[in-house]
């Protein structure tokens, strides 16, 4: 039987209408037409504005009849629209009073915060028509993708090895070998899945893929003349739409299908997908920024405002989204549910997540409702939730982020401890013992598991690994900010010469330091995260904040894989070793005792003398042994693993603890040895000559396995 | 948009000429969907289709579902490189049997 609601009840400007459904927000295809639903508390009237695709002027404007407003939601079905060529927006009327926080201006056409497709920046880097009255336009989406039995992978967090990557940077460079029109897109990643498999990572974390504007704050470098853009994309235009410019099919408006297909194909080979999401601010910036969407729809609801009507700026980028306002909270929840249910995304990393715990006046909340809601949401129940547990307003919550048993954290303290340790700083042995165990000092007391700690030595923010061992200071001249941008506390060491050198001793030392960092990262409890390109020795010439460069500075040079084969092999084997050994991926903290009565504690600490760690403040040596019988709390059996770290500038003899009876020590890695002896494929570790002692070179890490 | 249908033995050859977009897709839909009867063998010749929008791709997907549901067979012939590309990166291509020429297309039916 035909539904009665396919019949219109009203007409306006030649279009047939009926009162719509308030939920879901956004534009939804319904029998016979499209249901438009948009929220605004403080407006007095709303008009739907419809364009033909890319037309400079709308073909019709339809004011919402007063009876189509339910509460603070305008909702209307418009019949007989051309789904494919339709672009839509809204005009809002209401008070325009700066001090009261109201910015209504019916001359502006506003983007629907719930638009699922946004056009206007369809192909990356194509200059838009700046005279266009409506730059970022909402479009309709079809939720008919054929997932063929796919669902999010639901891998335990502690078993993940995360690869943080930038969609464009990964394959934009011609050296990627990817078909030209697929370079720098989701399709480019699709083509490189075999590479990700070879490297062995099982999770990709995509830097922002929500629609953003690469031309936001675009400018020419005052001296070099280089065109600088918003390359990283930490500035959201719309939270529901994938960035069109990241899709090879963006010009056909098929970015949804292209990204879904990428997720599906990654899932097929066991690779999870985590999205880096930015809910702390939007692309509208401060008082001088453009009016795109939220500012004109309900400024006072969406942003944190000072009593004078200015924007609070806890993000460091102009404005702060009012995340603990119930309306905004609802939008964030709707957004994450959409990406989880519709795109099968496995988890989210929240940029400057501490902002999500601030109240509408900026004060940190003891029990932030948004964080709690996300932690207990039924649709997000299996999603990974990872906080960047600090913000630009000075709130630093590593170890104290409200977790509700769910939230993991980027562990900035792990990064700092490991960096200081490998460059030979004194006084970090105690810290290192904590970091290697998954930072129980930060998490155990609150009942949070080791996988709360997302361990990393490098990330997009800061030096690459190759630069960490080649530069003492940042070199950010190319960013055009007089070198004032980017972090100053890098804990880096150039090994004797600042920047590039052909001194073979220095190059050897740098290679060893890189091996040390990766070896330590991959044997630490918690969840390792690698930065895209570190596995091939990517350099950014000492620039530790490359947010604005759409150039080879950020594009991965794939020739490096060939040039640095030994290094690539080292990283690959370290990842495989971790995945082969569950004792490196425990789900509970060590107890530092033999709770199973098997003859060895779950973890034991050593120094140059077996069973005697040197905890003194000037110590630079630490070794530990993991008991395979205690792997995953004794639920699985694994080998005994011994890791010795000599960060002293001299070689030292290490007395080895005896391996379990019937086994002998075999060498998996020795960063002090030259390739190919620096590492062996897991399962093919050669036996150690002397089972009682070992000379470990200066600034070197040795990993042994008993079998 | 021009649609030609001719029966060649047990194969129904549908030849499309012109662009497939939101304007033309409904017409094609109307003409070719009834062809997807149980056991039918449909060969869709798209050698003369220079452009296809997402509406066109969705039409193909619809046709695929219809033929699959009716145990019918569908072979696509003469897709442009750009179209093949778009179908490949959006995952549509996996669903279809694709042949470069009409002759090969006819042999592709099992």
Which percent bin holds the helix content of chain B?
A: 25-40%
Shape of chain B: globular
Largest interface: A-B, 26 and 16 residues
Report the radius of gyration of chain B as a whole number of Å.
13 Å
Based on DSSP secondary structure assignment, what is the total number of beta strands of chain A?
A: 30
Q: Total number of helical segments of chain A?
A: 14
Largest sheet of chain B: 5 strands, mixed
User: Whole-number average pLDDT of chain B?
Assistant: 90
Give me the secondary-structure category of chain A.
Answer: alpha/beta
Biggest sheet strand order of chain A reads 14-15-18-19-20-21-22-23
Whole-number average pLDDT of chain A? 96
- Count the beta strands of chain B: 5
Low-confidence stretches of chain A: none
Q: Strand content of the residues of chain A, in percent?
A: 15-25%
Architecture overview:
The complex is a heterodimer of chains A (707) and B (110). Chain A is α/β, with parallel strands linked by helices. Chain A is 19% helix and 19% strand. Chain A contains 14 helices and 30 strands. In chain A, the strands form seven sheets. Chain A has an eight-stranded parallel beta barrel. In chain A, strand 5 and strand 6 (60-63) form a beta hairpin. In chain A, helix 12 packs parallel to helix 14 (565-580). Chain A is elongated. The mean pLDDT of chain A is 96. Chain B is an alpha/beta fold and 110 residues long. Chain B has four helices and five strands; from the N terminus they run ββαβαβαβα. Chain B has a five-stranded mixed β-sheet. In chain B, helix 1 links the parallel strand 2 (11-17) and strand 3. In chain B, helix 1 (25-32) packs parallel to helix 2. Classes of the chains: A alpha/beta (707), B alpha/beta (110). Chains A and B meet through helix 2 and helix 4 of A and helix 2 and helix 3 of B.
């Amino acid at each position: 039987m035909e539904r009665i609601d396919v019949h219109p009840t009203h007409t306006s400007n030649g279009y047939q209408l009926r009162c719509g459904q308030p939920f879901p927000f956004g534009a939804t295809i319904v029998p016979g037409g499209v249901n438009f639903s948009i929220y605004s508390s403080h407006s007095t009237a709303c008009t739907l504005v419809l364009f033909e695709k890319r037309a400079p002027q709308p073909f019709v404007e339809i004011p919402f009849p007063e009876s189509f407003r339910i509460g603070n939601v305008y909702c209307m079905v418009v019949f007989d629209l051309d789904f494919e060529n339709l672009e839509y927006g809204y005009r809002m009327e209401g008070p325009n009073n700066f001090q009261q926080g109201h910015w209504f201006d019916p001359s502006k056409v506003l983007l629907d915060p719930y638009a699922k497709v946004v056009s206007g920046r369809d192909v990356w880097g194509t200059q838009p028509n700046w005279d266009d009255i409506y730059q970022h336009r909402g479009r309709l989406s079809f939720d008919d993708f054929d997932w063929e039995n796919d669902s999010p992978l639901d891998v335990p967090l502690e078993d993940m090895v995360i690869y943080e990557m930038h969609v464009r940077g990964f394959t934009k460079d011609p050296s990627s070998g990817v078909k030209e029109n697929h370079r720098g897109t989701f399709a480019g990643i699709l083509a490189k899945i075999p590479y990700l498999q070879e490297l062995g990572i099982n999770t990709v974390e995509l830097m922002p893929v929500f629609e953003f504007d690469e031309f936001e704050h675009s400018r020419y470098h005052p001296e070099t003349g280089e065109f600088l853009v918003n390359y990283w994309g930490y500035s959201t235009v719309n939270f529901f739409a994938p960035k069109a410019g990241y899709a090879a099919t963006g010009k056909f408006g098929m970015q949804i299908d292209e990204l879904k297909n990428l997720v599906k194909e990654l899932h097929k080979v066991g690779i999870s997908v985590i999205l880096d999401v930015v809910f702390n601010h939007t692309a509208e910036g401060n008082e001088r920024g453009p009016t795109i969407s939220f500012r004109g729809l309900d400024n006072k609801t969406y942003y944190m405002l000072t009593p004078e009507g200015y924007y609070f700026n806890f993000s460091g980028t102009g404005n702060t989204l009012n995340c603990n306002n119930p309306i905004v909270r609802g939008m964030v929840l709707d957004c994450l549910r959409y990406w989880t249910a519709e795109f099968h995304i496995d988890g989210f990393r929240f940029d400057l997540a501490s902002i999500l715990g601030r109240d509408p006046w900026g004060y940190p909340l003891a029990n932030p409702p948004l964080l709690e809601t996300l932690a207990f949401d039924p649709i997000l129940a299996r999603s990974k939730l990872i906080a960047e547990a600090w913000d630009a307003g000075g709130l630093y919550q590593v170890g104290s982020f409200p977790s509700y048993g769910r939230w993991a954290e980027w562990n900035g303290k792990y990064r700092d401890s490991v960096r200081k340790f490998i460059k030979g700083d004194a006084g970090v042995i105690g810290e290192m013992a904590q970091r290697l165990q998954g930072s129980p000092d930060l998490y155990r007391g609150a009942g949070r598991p080791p996988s709360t700690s997302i361990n990393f030595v490098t990330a997009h923010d800061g030096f690459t690994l190759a630069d960490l061992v080649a530069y003492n200071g940042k070199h950010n001249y190319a960013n055009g900010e007089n070198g004032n941008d980017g972090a100053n506390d890098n804990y880096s060491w150039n090994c004797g010469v600042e920047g590039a050198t052909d001194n073979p001793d220095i190059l050897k030392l740098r290679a060893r330091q890189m091996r040390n960092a990766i070896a330590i990262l991959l044997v630490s409890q918690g969840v390792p995260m690698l930065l895209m390109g570190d596995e091939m020795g990517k350099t950014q010439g000492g620039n530790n904040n490359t947010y604005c460069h759409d150039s080879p500075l950020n594009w991965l040079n794939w020739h490096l894989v060939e040039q640095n084969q030994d290094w690539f092999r080292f990283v690959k084997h370290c990842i495989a070793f971790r995945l082969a050994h569950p004792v490196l991926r425990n789900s509970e903290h060590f107890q530092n005792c033999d709770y199973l009565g098997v003859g060895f504690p779950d973890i034991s600490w050593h120094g140059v003398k077996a069973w005697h760690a040197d905890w003194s403040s000037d110590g630079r040596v630490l070794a530990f042994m993991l008991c395979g019988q205690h792997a995953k709390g004794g639920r699985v059996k694994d080998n005994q693993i011994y890791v010795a770290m000599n960060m002293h500038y001299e070689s030292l003899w290490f007395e080895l603890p005896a391996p379990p009876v019937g086994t002998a020590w075999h060498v998996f890695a020795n960063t002090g040895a030259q390739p190919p002896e620096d590492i062996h494929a897991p399962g093919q570790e050669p036996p150690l000559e002397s089972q009682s002692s070992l000379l470990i070179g200066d600034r070197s890490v040795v990993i042994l396995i008993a079998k | 948009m021009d649609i030609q249908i001719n029966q060649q033995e047990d194969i129904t050859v549908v030849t499309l000429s012109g662009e497939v977009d939101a304007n033309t897709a409904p017409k094609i839909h109307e003409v070719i969907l009834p062809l997807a009867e149980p056991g039918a063998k449909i060969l869709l010749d798209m050698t003369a289709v220079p452009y296809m929008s997402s509406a066109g791709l969705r039409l193909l997907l619809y046709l695929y579902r219809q033929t699959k549901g009716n145990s019918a067979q569908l072979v696509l012939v003469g897709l442009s490189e750009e179209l093949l590309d778009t179908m490949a990166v959006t995952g549509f291509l996996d669903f279809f049997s694709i042949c470069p020429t009409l002759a090969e297309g006819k042999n592709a039916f099992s």
